[in-house]
Amino acid sequence: MAKIRERSLGLGSQCAFTFLGTGAGEGVPIVGCDCDICYSVERSSFTERGWRTRSCALLDVGCKSILLDCGPDIRTQLLNVRTIRRLHSSLYSKTSPYSFSGQRESFSDTSNQEKESNGIETGAISEIFLPDEIDYVLLTHWNFDHVGGLIELNHTWRPDRLASKEKIELLLTEHAQQGYRSLEGSLFRTSAPDGTKRASEDVEDVFIYTVVEPYKCYKLFTEHIDERLAYSVEVIPIETYHTPDSVAFAIYITRYEDLGDETGDKNSNSLKESRKEIVYLTDSPYEMPEKTREIIKDSDLLIMDCTFYKNVEEKGFKYHMDTEDCIRLVRETNPKMAYVTHISHRNLEYDDLIDLFGDMRNLGVAYDGLRFELF
Predict the structure, then answer these.
(1) Backbone phi, then psi, for 248, in 5-degree steps?
(2) Domain coordinates of the chain in residue numbers?
(3) Beta strand pairing call for 56-61 and 271-281
(4) Through-space distance between the first and last CA atoms of the chain, rounded to whole angstroms
(5) Collapsing DSSP states into helix, strand and coil, what is residue 28?
(6) For 274-349, where are the alpha helices, taking DSSP H only?
(7) What is the pLDDT of residues 110-149, one digit of tens each?
(8) DSSP assignment, residue 362?
(9) Could you tell me if 372 and 119 are in contact, meaning their C-beta atoms sit under 8 angstroms apart?
């Protein structure tokens, strides 16, 4: 029987967050677009931070991995992580702009990447995440740029998943569930090439799913790293006003560490508990339910939609945020650190966004491949 590859826990990778993609629905640059942004980015190196694939993020906790949305670029995004693991870290300087260089940034530090790049150490090869498996996918809503990669995931791990009976668990809204079922033919391959119906054992789904309700808490797992260290992860879907039934996710990660006493007694009762709250708020307009805004307040890490530069409503795109909305939201909710993502070609380039946010030490600009430890 085929067996899913065992995953090892690399040093420094117990709990980390990675931006796999930070672009809006079309990505940046857009094929065939001759606007100033696309023209500039297309003629720059692939290693520059202006290149943006569709928004997607990866949270790895111990040997568990959680995808936040799953857009059509997921194959390229995961291959990038795998490829860079095979490269020697000495190829990249401490200030290298290359997205998947293994650099690690702490969201508790200053958000100005121009300053951060001078103090970031290049990560060792063992510290770079290798996504052999995805355990969970949190889907915010049923738009192609957020779900188009599900078929890719299905094809990538289908043989091993069916053999081992291990499933990828989707958390999605009722509206997204209806969209998911519409993909049945593509996901499950219910017909053979000659048009005949496949046997039932050949169309087993590699996914299982949980239909979530806003503001209800869902416990995903508890992961034991060793006899003295464990993590637990819970998520709460929170409503947004983007599309019907769209949600953001508040993710709560609790770290349990048995410090022992000074003599190293493993049986001593000295449990240290620490918690982080991550809010993944893409896609969303500035206007949102008050209950959602309350959950966002004072979070450890806020990741938010920043599709446009200015005047988003005047342009007829009232279901997203612009730079001014993001600045207002950060000032009102006071997260320890915030990053803007879902950035389109109707926004500024990376360096210009850094300058725009200026002295806001808790507001940064995400780029594809940005990764940092959470504890």
Answers:
(1) -110, 175
(2) 15-373
(3) unpaired
(4) 38
(5) strand
(6) 290-296, 323-333
(7) 344 443 432 223 333 334 444 557 899 999 999 999 999 9
(8) T
(9) no
Amino acid at 65: S
Return the SS3 of 112. coil
Residue 33 is encoded by which pair of tokens? 């677009």
Best CA proximity match to 233, nearest among 210, 211, 217: 217
Over the stretch 218-259, which tens digit does the pLDDT of each residue have? Answer: 999 998 988 899 999 999 999 999 988 899 999 999 999 987
Reading the block at residue 301, the tokens are 């890490």
Distance CA 343, CA 34 (A): 17
CB 323 within 8 A of CB 361: no
CB 22 within 8 A of CB 366: yes
- Beta-bridge partners for 54: 23
Looking up tokens 């504890």, which residue turns up?
A: 375
Q: For residue 305, which amino acid is it?
A: D
Model pTM score: 0.83
C-alpha–C-alpha distance, residues 92 and 15, integer Å = 24
H-helix or E-strand spanning residue 208: strand 207-211
Helices (H), the chain: 36-42, 74-85, 113-116, 144-147, 150-164, 174-182, 184-188, 290-296, 323-333, 350-357
For residues 56 and 20, the answer to whether their CB atoms sit within 8 Å is yes
- In single-letter form, the type of residue at position 85 comes to R
Closest residue by Cα to residue 368 from 332, 341, 328? 341
3.40.50.2300, 3.30.70.20, 3.60.15.10, 1.10.390.10: CATH of 15-373: 3.60.15.10
Calculate what percentage of the chain has a pLDDT beyond 90. Answer: 53
* Nearest residue to 369 via CA among 68, 56, 126, 11: 56
**What one-letter code names the amino acid at 63?**
C
